[in-house]
Design goal:
The protein is an alpha/beta fold. The chain has one domain: Glycosidases (TIM Barrel, Alpha-Beta Barrel), CATH 3.20.20. It has 16 helices and 13 strands. Strands 1-2-3-4-5-7-10-11 form an eight-stranded parallel β-barrel, surrounded by five helices. A three-stranded mixed sheet has the order 6-8-9, with helices on one face. Strand 12 and strand 13 form a beta hairpin. The longest helix is centred in the middle third of the chain and has 25 residues. The radius of gyration is 21 Å and the shape is globular. The structure holds 5-hydroxymethyl-3,4-dihydroxypiperidine (IFM). 5-hydroxymethyl-3,4-dihydroxypiperidine binds next to loops.
């Protein structure tokens, strides 16, 4: 493989060419609210993010997803870019309020037709669409009925899943129920960094349980309506470390963060139980039979991973812990996130040992604040270096026995990075937002060459 970087781990010999399965999937990921724009076009209803962005102080620079990458109108150009990247697969999400403007009831034909065009364009380009049902843009109308705190949402979500399955199940077999449920639940109900902007532990535990119920309902619906479906759930999984490793209180804080962040969803969904740290807290929101409703067989585990996370004890915080920064001397990406590919390798091995499902890395990438140089090119060496070392770590995990079958870069395009607005760029393709011009970065060219080299290896 081209330019493979071999991780140095204390002089132990490491095979240079650790081969991946011949049908390994190379892809890119995006999400609806982060790229589509067109928030009030063709009958789309408002989402919780539209409302949240309107509140001064919520988003850096007062940014919103109103225009984003205007992907709703420029999707054909974006498919051409993916074709040049030679990716096998594209993971996107459907905006629930685009297809069901009020979250339930009457569907919106124009919104449904947009995803028809996208899916048909991808298939014509030889790119497999991977559809995620939920990447955080809950219809605002459902939020007004309690959102994730209303137990009925499992049924509303099931009806939405059925609409999507019936409409696209003839052309799509790869479905994910949720993207990173722990992020939108913990940030939305525990830290007020996402909608609905609460700091309320009871609400957090209730929301977690209802998201899990919706997941189970979604799996059953997809299975019933898409005969050849391959269904997964996408979780962010990262080592949770104590800010003060010698402080018992910080170690306990990291364990609690680990329960909320890494285990609150995969354990009930795949092992049929809540983590011991959370079981008592979720109990008041449970009804008989709920764990059977949640723990439904799925086909793959989506891992989103960027870097380790850190926690410290904080008696004043309602959850008893606070987020902490990584130690000062660790390597960091341009936006300050720790770079630790060995943690990625160990995470993949850990997920494999715990859940024994085929793994697809559904997000990995590096954030930066780059801009075009004088020649109009975007030279993102640090992102290339990050991707090389993380893909090398993935190879190590496979060599050590983890069943990893695919890797999707986050992200195809620079996009709306939630609370950071447009300041943090994760794309292989640079977006000049005022003109909406797309400029493939050096990392895009590198990724295309790497995929081609892998394909040639497969032929040889
Ligand atoms: O942009 C996000 C994405 O929506 C979810 N996973 C992490 C990415 C980078 O922060």
């Amino acid at each position: 493989m081209e330019d493979d970087v071999v991780l140095d781990r204390g002089g132990a010999p490491v095979a240079e060419r650790r081969e991946l399965p011949h049908d390994f999937v190379w892809g890119v990921s995006t999400s609806s609210y982060q790229i589509e724009g067109a928030t009030d076009v063709d009958g789309r209803g408002p989402s919780v993010w539209d409302a949240y962005c309107r509140v001064p102080g919520h988003i850096a620079n007062g940014d919103t997803g109103d225009l984003a990458c205007d992907h709703y109108h420029r999707y054909a150009e974006d498919i051409s870019l993916m074709r040049k990247l030679r990716v096998h697969a594209y993971r996107f999400s459907v905006a629930w309020p685009r297809v069901l403007p009020k979250g339930r009831g009457a569907s919106n034909e124009a919104g449904l037709a947009f995803y028809d065009r996208l899916i048909d364009g991808l298939l014509a380009a030889g790119i497999e669409p991977w559809l995620c049902l939920y990447h955080w843009d809950l219809p605002q109308a459902l939020q007004e009925e309690g959102g994730w705190l209303n137990r009925d949402i499992a049924g509303w979500y099931g009806d939405y899943a059925e609409l999507v399955a019936r409409r696209y199940g003839d052309r799509i077999r790869r479905f994910a129920t949720f993207n990173e449920p722990s992020v939108f639940s913990l940030f939305g109900y525990g830290f007020a960094w996402h909608p609905p902007g609460l700091v309320d532990p009871v609400a957090l535990n209730r929301a977690i349980h209802h998201v899990n119920l919706a997941h189970g309902r979604g799996v059953d619906v997809l299975r019933a309506h898409v005969p050849r479906s391959s269904i997964g759930a996408i979780h962010n999984v990262q080592p949770s470390r104590a800010a003060g490793p010698r402080s018992a209180a910080d170690v306990a804080a990291a364990k609690l963060l680990d329960a909320y962040w890494n285990r609150a969803f995969p354990e009930p969904q795949l092992l049929g139980r809540y983590p011991e740290e959370l079981a008592r807290l979720v109990e008041p929101h449970m009804q008989a039979g709920d764990l059977d409703r949640i723990c439904r067989p799925i086909d793959w585990f989506g891992v989103n991973h960027y870097s380790p996370i850190y926690a410290k004890a904080a008696s004043e915080a309602v959850l008893g812990f606070a987020w902490a920064d990584a130690p000062a001397d660790v390597p960091r990406s341009p936006i300050g996130w720790q770079v630790d590919p060995i943690a990625f390798r160990d995470t993949l091995l850990d997920v494999w040992r715990r859940y024994r499902l085929p793994i697809y890395v559904t997000e990995n990438g590096a954030g930066a604040n780059e801009s075009p140089d004088g020649a109009g090119e975007v030279v993102d060496h640090e992102r290339v270096r990050y991707l090389k070392t993380y893909i090398s770590a993935l190879r190590d995990a496979v060599a050590a026995g983890a069943d990893v079958r695919g890797y999707f870069v986050w992200s195809l395009l620079d996009n709306f990075e939630w609370g950071a607005g447009y300041a943090n760029r994760f794309g292989l393709v640079y977006i000049d937002y005022p003109s909406q011009r797309r400029i493939p970065k050096e990392s895009a060219h590198w990724y295309a060459r790497m995929i081609r080299a892998e394909a040639l290896r497969g032929l040889g």
